Amino acid sequence: MPSTRALIRAPWSASKISTALRCPRLYHFKYVDKVREPEVMPEARIGKAIHAALEDALGGTSVAEAAARARADLPDAHEQARYDQLTANIAPFIERIARFRRRRRVVRQLVEFSLAVREDFTTTSFYSGDAFYRGILDVGYVFDDDSIALVDHKTGVRIPGTSIADQLEGYVVLTHAWLRSASRFWLGLHWVAERAVEWGPPVGSDEVMGRMRPGLLDNIEAAALAVDDGPRTNPGSWCERCSYRTLCPASREQRYEPVEYEEDDEADD
Q1: Is 130 exposed, middle or buried (0-12, 13-18, 19+ CB in 10 A)?
Q2: CATH number at residue 123
Q3: pLDDT (tens digit, 9 = 90+) per residue, 27-86?
Q4: What is the DSSP letter of 56?
Q5: d(C-alpha 153, C-alpha 193), whole Å
Q6: Is the omega angle on the peptide bond into residue 38 within 30 degrees of 0, that is, cis?
Q7: pLDDT of 4-16, one tens digit each?
């Protein structure tokens, strides 16, 4: 069972865990003090807009209409231009999914599907007070052979060697709890910029129960321990992309590091 410190800070999610492990001060800004983001990074706005367009298109809206609707939320021409480059890849993805569905016997499509479990991994509603871990699937396809494909959209740069399992294991645990009949899980990352879907090997129920669920609990415990001592800053390369960098003392020190000038003895002579 989870520790008291983990239960107190529930509900957990993949982003909440990664934030706690990356920088406890950022975790406190977002989840404890609930400080509104003083600065939203352009990449975050573009990514949110692409996700919205994909959700609409997968739901049956025309790609052109879905893209135009999400584009309206971007504030400047530079972000809109980058968004337009990415949305050019949505139609090929929708066509690929249509071919995929024709080849496989899909009985159910799950788009932006909210899931949550209690600490004992029984199911509960997403906003329930007893939710311990929760997440929202980008898209999933339930087949008639008791298997399911889970796909996560990625709008950033494709990183060589990125582990599919690390990205999606939490969603597998949630889906396993909700769809008890599912016995095999296919995991895929949709790299929007590259028009690529990268698939990992299938995962069975035994691996979900024997490795993924305990691993998720271990990650939650590590995250709870990391933030237990308060808003400790962990500076790193991510500081320049942090929405709270103007409020963080460590980020200010990195950006405005004082420069010491050596006296020019010859100039004084």
Answers
A1: middle
A2: 3.90.320
A3: 999 999 999 988 888 999 999 999 999 999 999 999 999 999 999 999 899 999 999 999
A4: H
A5: 10
A6: no
A7: 999 999 999 999 9
With bands split at pLDDT 50, 70 and 90, how would you rate the model's confidence at 135? very high
Q: Please give the full DSSP string across 113-156, using - where no structure is assigned.
A: EEEEE-TTS-EE-TT-TT--EEEEEEEEEEETTSEEEEEEEE-S
Confidence (pTM): 0.86
Instruction: Tell me how many domains the chain contains.
Output: 1
Helices (H), the chain: 4-8, 14-22, 24-27, 42-58, 63-71, 77-87, 90-103, 164-178, 205-207, 213-226, 249-255, 265-268
Cα separation, 81 vs 83, whole angstroms: 5
Q: What is the pLDDT of residues 237-255, one digit of tens each?
A: 778 888 888 888 876 655 5
Residue 260 covered by a domain: no
**268 in a structural domain:** no
| Domain annotation covers residue 75 | yes
**Residue bearing tokens 């231009």:** 81
Backbone angles phi, psi at 139, to 5 degrees: -160, 140
